[in-house]
């Protein structure tokens, strides 16, 4: 047994079996970790400055190029006709302690620093990890975009499409059309029609477990397995080798 342990931990033996057995397993473990670790959190100050012709900032990468172009066209036309602007922002994950509303308010004041700039602006923000969303708007548009309509946009226009399989493209097309109508002074078209009875909660979030502790435990377990299994394999291999003559 002592001889086997010496061979197991000798430099040449370890180098040989590390290359053949341990290294491939470690590569597999690290590749797996990329998928199970949580998405990078985004802070308000990491969002780039707003350019005048930015209507949708898709940092969550959930909107297709074709639909992004269509949404840009709708919101650009709204701005030219009425002076009311809508900005849609998607991110992957909030910083710890942030809520959709606190993040949206922070970004709103970062982009629009005084009352005059804020008056005709509306910001819709969503984090794609939990589908938490919020709307913030300036004083001049509040008579058109009432709290009741804003809540309905978040909980129903967005919520219904996202509950039905995370249909982000359809959700944002519906949102841009509805906000464009409301902020143009037209009658509110309301949320999309739903065939079945969908229970919509007051604050929309997707029920998804994103426990970072579980992800870390998986990575540690895989790393342990990547070390122990090759060592055990080598031990069995040595046991089964024919003994040399005395």
Question: If you had to describe this structure to a student in words, what would you say it looks like?
Answer:
- The chain has 246 residues and is α/β, with parallel strands linked by helices.
- Among the domains are: 44-183, Roll (Diaminopimelate Epimerase, Chain A, domain 1); 209-238.
- 52% of the residues lie in helices and 9% in strands.
- The protein has eight helices and four strands; from the N terminus they run ααβαβααββααα.
- Strand 3 and strand 4 form a beta hairpin.
- Helix 2 runs antiparallel to helix 8 (212-239), helix 3 (65-82) packs parallel to helix 7 (168-183) and helix 6 (147-163) packs antiparallel against helix 7.
- The longest helix has 28 residues, at 212-239.
- The chain is globular.
- The model is unreliable at 29-38 and 197-211 (pLDDT under 50).
